[in-house]
Amino acid sequence: MQSQRGLSLIELMVAMVIGLVISGAVLQVFISNKNTFLLQNASGHLQENGRFALQYLAAEIRPAGVGMGVRLPEESICVVATNGAASEWNAMNRPIWGQRITAIGALGAVGSDQMALFINDNCGAFLTAGEILKPGVNANIKVTGYCPSMQQNRAVMVMDVEKAVIIRVSNKPNATGSGVVTLTHAAGNNDKDAECGGFKFADIAFTDPARVAGFSSKIFYVAETGRTGTAGQAIRALFVRDVSTIPAQTMEVVEGVESMRTRYGVAAASGVGVQDYLTPAEVEAANRWGDVRTVKVDLLMVSDGRTPGAQEQVIEFDGMAVVADGRMRQVFSTVVALRNRID
């Protein structure tokens, strides 16, 4: 009698079923671990970008309006710097200004907010005694001291209590020492025939003392980067446009910002305590930019690809539900006080 060797068909089928069950369990563990990793990775990336964006904006917002000194009406500010973003300087007498983008072609994505900040360097430079600004006679002006913002191809503002002009520095001012500094405003970089506010640049003379100030004029907005994510969706980012550099320079700050909302904390005239938070349109309609004390910024961050579990996310932004498309989203918010309005 021969001994039985091998497996019967039934035993083989049972072994295969057991193997499949074990393989399925292992596969489920692998998929679960992979999804957890992708979810944590996307969440970590969102938090890193969101926190950086808020910290960056907060640092830029706090000093808004510092060093502005005399605030002149827009018609008394004459922009003569050629290739300068004159249309983007129309609110430079406001420390902070914003609007909701409602039309394609504007600076920023439709439905997102745009925010402009204006800061003077406040370094205390003045025209030297007897100095006038006559481009037809002399393409140089002499000032009492050097400011860090007095750099080639940047704009500076010369102002007295009645008027101001913005010229483009075409030389490289000497930063050494504390004596008189010469700023060249060559005709090729400045329009000597510019007229605004009832005065002509070529005929202007300032009353003493006439201050010379460099400034920072920046616009923050959300727009398409031109890149696409792993799932083919367009990638947006937070951008900053520096219009005090001529020509204006645009820089991408951080990607993954899908939209930005701003609300402005306004106080009673000459007060400090915030009474209410208004949208940019509400502040503009009430002409209350001068009463702004704080800014609330909300950023809607989004991952660059589809993330497991994101389809079930329920996200609200500015009181409205965000349609799920498989990408992970998170809202980041902060409130920033304007330092010169609170102190």
TrEMBL record:
The reply to whether Transmembrane figures as a keyword in the UniProt entry is yes
Q: Which residues form a coiled coil?
A: none
What InterPro entries does UniProt report for this protein, alphabetically? Answer: N_methyl_site, PilW
Q: What are the entry keywords? A: Membrane, Transmembrane, Transmembrane helix
PROSITE patterns named in the record: PROKAR_NTER_METHYL
Residue spans crossing the bilayer: 12-31
Query: Can the keyword Transmembrane helix be found in this entry's annotation?
Result: yes
What NCBIfam families does its record include? Answer: IV_pilin_GFxxxE
How is this protein named in the record?
PilW family protein
Organism source for this protein? Pseudomonas aestuarii
Taxonomy of origin reads: Bacteria, Pseudomonadati, Pseudomonadota, Gammaproteobacteria, Pseudomonadales
